[in-house]
Amino acid sequence: MTAALVLFWSSLAALAWTHALYPLTVAVGARLHTRRVAADDAYLPSVAVIVTAFNEEDAIERRLENLRALDYPPELLELVVTSDASTDRTEELAEVAGARVIRNPRGGKVAAQDAAVRATDADVVAFSDANATWAPDALRKLVRNLADPQVAYVCGRLRLETPDGSNKEGVYWRYELVTRDGESRLGSVTAGNGSIYALRRSDYAEVDPRFGHDLSLPYLMVQRGRRAVYEPAALAYERPTPTNESEYRRKVRMFEHAWLIVLRGRMLRGQGLGYVLALVSHRHLRYASGLLHLTLLGSSIALLGHSWIYAVVLGLQLGLLAAALVGVGIARYYVLITWATVVSLWNYLRRGVPATWAPQREGELA
């Protein structure tokens, strides 16, 4: 009985905190105290925009055309396509389109990014995916934050276009960006996104090729005493996966890497108390949501009959599962993505995490 009570209330509190109370606390805190960035619109460093590609012949020409149209001095801009041993016409098409092409042995996205950074002498390195599109002023808005010497990393705002199918990722993403904006205004974000981000080449860190930059670079910059910020005016666009089911498969792959970093990346080492709270609240507990839900479900069943509250919580959980089963959009999305955190942990523990990846198809978000 005592163990069941502890499990029930601790799992319920953790879920309420990570999904509702922490985002609310961050939003309120950012309104009360904002740590400003000394951004400078006149700051125009030399920039290498690096696009990592593996068999992206269908997208690479369009991507480079979009980057050539950026409102940024062309003499300060270098377009780099770093190929992870592409076997299609990606490299040929990129060269014809005027990009500098770096050919790498198959080693994964991060290894290809490392090679590209080593090969350029630009002041700033910016990164994007082959399936993204940037607004014309996105690069200017992104790098102006790096005029502040305290800022080492900046990510832009990814807008998800309306999906062709039933995927509700856009609903979650809008909620996520509100929290990210609050974290940035308080100090530093806990994660970026692969569609649009930048840092000085001198600040670039080579990480475990299995980690990925989205989760690792922000906390590494903060460990160095710097800031990792969010610039909502630097816009990138992508199409989400078409269905909740395809989004589930994408999230399983993503969360495998997230679990690796959480369990082996030493994220909390040397961090200040506020940033530790942010990492635990927004990353650790969020990735543990599936385990927390399973704990809550089991303890609710064990405590059934001892108080009405346990019956209500059990009923709400069963109602959520029933709604997901019959296809209610947001309920199905939440249940699938929460279950993805469990499956990804099992995959990680069972076989580890590969460094290599394959491009997303049929509108999937990379």
Descriptive notes:
The protein folds into 2 domains: 1-31 and 247-356, no CATH class; 47-242, Spore Coat Polysaccharide Biosynthesis Protein SpsA, Chain A (Alpha-Beta Complex). The chain has helices spanning 2-32, 60-68, 90-96, 109-119, 138-143, 169-186, 213-223, 244-264, 273-287, 289-303, 308-326, 329-351, and strands spanning 47-53, 77-84, 100-104, 124-129, 133-134, 151-160, 197-200, 227-238. Helix content is 51%, strand content 15%. The chain has 12 helices and 8 strands. With 366 residues, the protein is of the alpha/beta class. The N and C termini lie far apart (45 Å). Strands 3-2-1-4-7-6-8-5 form an 8-stranded mixed β-sheet, sandwiched between helices.
Total separate domains: 2
CA-CA gap between termini: 45 Å
What is the count of β-strands? 8
Q: Secondary-structure element sequence?
A: HEHEHEHEEHEHEHEHHHHH
**CATH H level of the largest domain: which superfamily?**
Spore Coat Polysaccharide Biosynthesis Protein SpsA, Chain A
> What is the approximate shape?
globular
Radius of gyration: 21 Å
Give the biggest beta sheet.
Answer: 8 strands, mixed
Mean pLDDT: 92
Q: Do you know the CATH architecture of the largest domain?
A: Alpha-Beta Complex
Number of helices: 12
